[in-house]
Design goal:
This protein is an alpha/beta fold and about 325 residues long. The protein has eleven helices and eleven strands. The chain binds adenosine-5'-triphosphate.
Length: about 325
């Protein structure tokens, strides 16, 4: 390997820049050239490449977002798009790749490798924490802390008015953020995509909570919860006369959960995995993702990363019930 290409793809996550910095500096320390591929697979197809040196990653370890930009690329989903991307990689003499992103990004990298045989190693960069093969993903800890900070704020105002608040956090398919910020934020109830909860059960529990304590009640709802997110539940409660006397509000935290400076833990994770990705390529590994499992850097085949479902910790779910 003489020249590696690195890109960030899919939803952006705090810590992607720290990972990028680690990839670039580790590659340079091993006398490899580095090409930054802008806007993920979209830029790979268009040949939007930029040469990286030490200075191009100065002062970014602490920043959110991604200096290489990110994108979702429908064109990369078909073989013609991937063949075009491969032609660009050859033109720029890129002979190995480091992909930073979520499960879609890992799947794309896997298919590109299978079709065109280019060595590729992935780094898990997504706030959702839904990648198999790593205990936590880059950006997850930051998003969780941002969510908790905002839940605390909502709690203050909810407490002042004895309100029932529904707070929606990110997580279309996975409840990691909801479950953990529910515990950390002292929520009375947590609703996640992994569990099926009947609306009647939710109503019953809320009525009993509200009558028992006459103070604020906070429900954390993952956006992918099957009851329709915070707005869907709010509507169902407002349509029910039993809730007429309850001061009910809902709020969606939304994209604030993606932004901001990465936490110390995300910076360290991103740095370790970025170094691990380049070292793995140099050791001859390919079609794997680097992750942190029980505090150690571990490699998992890309196929398992996107093909297997990472389970939430069901003991934590029990905890939310005990503590509410
Ligand atoms: P996040 O989960 O944080 O949103 P992600 O990496 O899962 O991040 P996606 O939009 O799912 O985000 O995937 C990023 C890109 O990866 C897609 O826009 C597409 O170009 C590519 N990709 C995803 N799935 C496939 C697939 N099945 N085949 C080829 N490419 C894919």
């Amino acid at each position: 390997i003489e020249r590696i290409g690195v890109y960030t793809s899919g939803g952006d996550a705090p810590g992607m820049n720290a990972c990028l910095r680690a990839v670039v500096r580790t590659a340079l320390a091993n006398d490899l050239d580095v090409m930054g591929i802008r806007r993920g697979y979209e830029g790979m197809i268009e040949g939007d490449f930029v040469e990286m040196d030490r200075r191009s990653v100065s002062n970014i370890v602490q920043t959110g977002g991604t200096v290489l930009k990110s994108a979702r690329s429908p064109a990369f989903m078909n073989p013609e798009g991937r063949a075009r991307a491969m032609r660009m990689l050859k033109e720029y003499k890129v002979d190995a790749l480091v992909a930073i992103g979520g499960d879609g990004t890992m799947r794309g990298a896997n298919i590109l490798h299978d079709e065109h045989d280019i060595p590729v190693v992935g780094c898990p960069g997504t706030i959702d924490n839904d990648l198999y093969g790593t205990d936590t993903t880059i950006g997850y800890d930051t998003a969780l802390n941002t969510a908790i900070e905002n839940i605390d704020r909502v709690r203050d105002t909810a407490d002042a008015h004895n309100r029932l608040f529904l707070i929606e956090v990110m997580g279309r398919d996975a409840g990691f953020i909801a479950l953990n910020c529910g515990i950390g934020g002292g929520a009375e109830m947590v609703l996640i995509p992994e569990t099926i909860t009947e609306m009647e059960v939710v109503k019953e529990r809320l009525l009993s909570l509200m009558s028992a304590q006459r103070r604020s009640t906070i429900v954390i709802v993952a956006e992918g919860d099957e009851l329709g997110g915070a707005r869907g539940i709010e509507k169902a409660l407002l349509d029910d006369s039993d809730f007429n006397d309850i001061d009910l509000r809902s709020t969606i935290l939304g994209h604030i959960q993606r932004g901001g400076s990465p936490t110390a833990s995300d910076r360290v994770l991103a740095s370790r995995l970025g170094v691990g990705a380049v070292e793995s390529l140099l050791d001859g590994h390919s079609e794997v993702m680097v992750g942190l499992v029980n505090s150690e850097v571990k490699l998992t085949p890309l196929r398992n990363v996107w093909g297997r479902k990472k389970s939430i910790d069901y003991d934590l779910l029990k905890l939310t019930q005990i503590l509410s």
